[in-house]
Design brief:
- The protein is of the alpha/beta class.
- It has seven helices and 13 strands.
- α1 packs parallel to α2 and α5 packs antiparallel against α7 (about 215-220).
Length: about 250
């Protein structure tokens, strides 16, 4: 049976999920995007011209929300959506709102789980779960644990988690909608949550502070994102940024 879906799509993963749902002929009633200047938001607008597409700002408009309430919605799906939906919106979905979170919930709820996986060596993974009024606290539908390799940086782990959560959704979506996978409550005894502003306290490296080798390497791995390094130390008034490159080799 075809489902009526409202999709909140952000970034590459959002675009990939749009493509997948269209490929299996689901009825996407409308798509919400974050910023029309984002390359993937542009791809969504250019690729799915027959679907109503709205910017996130519209959800602050009471008349828009009232119009949304007139739709018959089987599922809402939030894909890397950085805003919390209000109950007046996600409660409109008959079967709940499925959220993508790149962590092994309830570990590393909140922001930048890939950074904290490296910093505190916590288990990494991806989770599909239902939204409730908390931040990443809703019942779990499906999960997969992901290995963090010694050469992973924040960027490589971020990419790995994106790929795995796309794959997890494709493997489980039909089972979820057919009632073959039932949600289970999260174990609060094992939960952790990280705020966005925690990153501000990570990046400055005090050259007079003592680190173990593991602590310093993990910090640099966690704050290296592709060609950009966020960790820095100071020389006078200047900031010196560090970018860590790692690879496996058999040479000595």
């Amino acid at each position: 049976m075809v489902s009526n879906i409202i999709l909140f799509a952000n970034g590459r993963v959002g675009f990939e999920i749009c493509n997948y749902l269209y490929s299996i002929n689901e009825n996407i009633q409308r798509i919400y995007i974050i910023d029309s200047d984002d390359q993937y938001a542009e791809k969504i607008k250019n690729s799915f011209v027959d679907t109503d597409i709205f910017c996130a700002e519209q959800l602050k408009n009471s008349s828009h929300v009232q119009e949304l309430k007139t739709l018959s919605i089987d599922y809402m799906i939030t894909v890397y959506w950085p805003y919390l939906l209000k109950p007046e919106i996600f409660d409109l979905s008959k079967n709940g709102c499925i959220n993508f979170h790149p962590a092994l919930l309830p570990i590393n709820r909140g922001w930048y789980p890939h950074v904290h996986n490296i910093l505190n060596e916590s288990p990494a993974g991806v989770t599909l779960h239902l939204i409730d009024e908390g931040a990443d606290t809703g019942p779990i539908l499906a999960q997969k644990k992901i290995d963090v390799e010694p050469i992973d940086t924040a960027f490589t782990l971020y990419e790995k988690l994106q790929n795995e959560i796309i794959d997890l959704f494709k493997k489980t979506w039909l089972k979820i909608k057919n009632g073959e996978i039932l949600p289970k409550l999260q174990d609060e005894s094992n939960s952790s949550y990280h705020k966005k502003r925690e990153m501000d306290d990570l990046d400055y490296i005090d050259l007079e502070k003592t680190f173990t080798g593991r602590e310093l390497i993990n910090l640099l791995r966690a704050r290296t994102f592709g060609n950009k390094g966020f960790a820095y130390f100071r020389v006078g008034e200047k900031k010196i940024f560090l970018n860590l490159k790692l690879n496996y080799t058999d040479e000595f």
